[in-house]
Amino acid sequence: MIITLEPDAPDSVADAVVQIAERYPGVSARRYEFRGAATTVVEIHLLGTTRAVPTDPFEGLPGVRKVVRVSVKYRLIGRPHPSAETPGFEYNGVHFDDEHVHVFAGLCAVDTRDHVERMLAALRSNGIVTTRMGAYKPRTSPYDFQGLGKSCLPWLFELAGKYGIKVIAMEITDARHLDEIEAALDDAGSPTGVMLQIGTRNTQNFELLKHIGQQQRFPVLFKRGMGITLEESLNACEYVASEGNSNIVFCLRGVKTHLGEPHRNLVDFAHVPVLRRQTRLPICIDPSHSVGRMDVAPDGLPDIFHVVGQGLIAGASMVLVDFHPVPTAALCDGPQALPLTELPRLLRYVEIVRRAFEAATTAA
Ligand code: PEP
Ligand code: MN
User: Which ligand is nearest to the CA of 203?
Assistant: First the structure.
């Protein structure tokens, strides 16, 4: 059972709810706070044998907005009912919710200072404050470039600050990487922010998920597993929230099957509305790792643009996309990297499709 309080309810309401709940044997109550840009939603979740607990003692309390019996498995990331609030969250001045669209354009892997600087300069001149930059790369072959690791963090963070970047999405593959990022950010005076990315290969690395769930400093970009069901990915994502960090964006990035060929993965953006129905998380799409190549359709738009459109028209609010100033020189995923000249065109395209989504949903 989930008891949602009115936004301005005093703490005494939460206390009263907990007191009533704990009168029932085998029932415990946990308080959760979802901090959005405009409102903070407080919920009390009743756990255990709640079937015998009636709803009316809670419904009768002033300051209680709604009481729902839930059977959702994902009690924290899940959307308990269609009208449930989806407050999103704010991090380093950037709002992550259904209303704000962000393009995280950047290098798949940090390689040289010059490439990073050219990328960041292009973002600044296009008014973008969010990027993706991998320092730790999970590669299929141990002989491929593994990322520069912690050695690049000091200059990467310094450059990000110089170009006004507020959030860098950066994958971590080991708990140690979190300490390295924290230390480097502190040493640099926190000129930027980091969103910790869980890659598709680590979707079910439960110890890593618990570890990043236990910290509150950084939000999490959680990528679906490429070879597991959506339900399994959502259960895995719930691990992060269940440890205390609900500032999560859920990212679709395609699923592994030859049936998607010639694309690298089968694009799964039809799951955007499913995720918006089943969860309260903002939804990201990654067209680069889905499509995996720079083919252009007869209409002049790369396939990567077309799948961006598919995700946005379905309600995604974040796009993670690979760029490189010299795609042929990229040390990781060059074939899917868009050249910087495509950045203004992509941003225009994103705006057009988002406007179409807003018009379509307003008319509906
Ligand atoms: C990435 O975004 O760089 C990446 C490795 O993605 P994925 O985990 O989706 O393959
Ligand atoms: Mn990549």
Answer: 1
What is residue 71's predicted lDDT score, i.e. its pLDDT? Answer: 67
Tokens of 257: 């099957």
Type of residue at 258: H
What gap in Å lies between CA 31 and CA 24, rounded to an integer?
Answer: 17
Tell me, in angstroms, the distance from the centre of ligand 1 to residue 90's CA: 24
- Report CA(288)–ligand 2 centroid distance (Å): 8
- Determine the Cα–Cα distance for residues 253 and 169; give it in Å rounded to an integer: 15
15-30 core/surface letters (b: 16 or more CB in 10 A; e: else)? ebbbebbeebeebebe
List, in sequence order, every beta strand (DSSP E) within 36-149.
40-48, 64-68, 89-91, 94-96, 102-109, 130-134
Q: Name the pTM for this structure.
A: 0.91
Instruction: Enumerate residue ranges in the chain where pLDDT < 70.
Output: 37, 71-72
Cα dist from 347 to 81, 259, 291, 321, 341, whole Å: 34, 30, 18, 11, 11
Structure tokens at 227: 């070879």
Protein residue with least CA distance to atom 8, ligand 1: 199
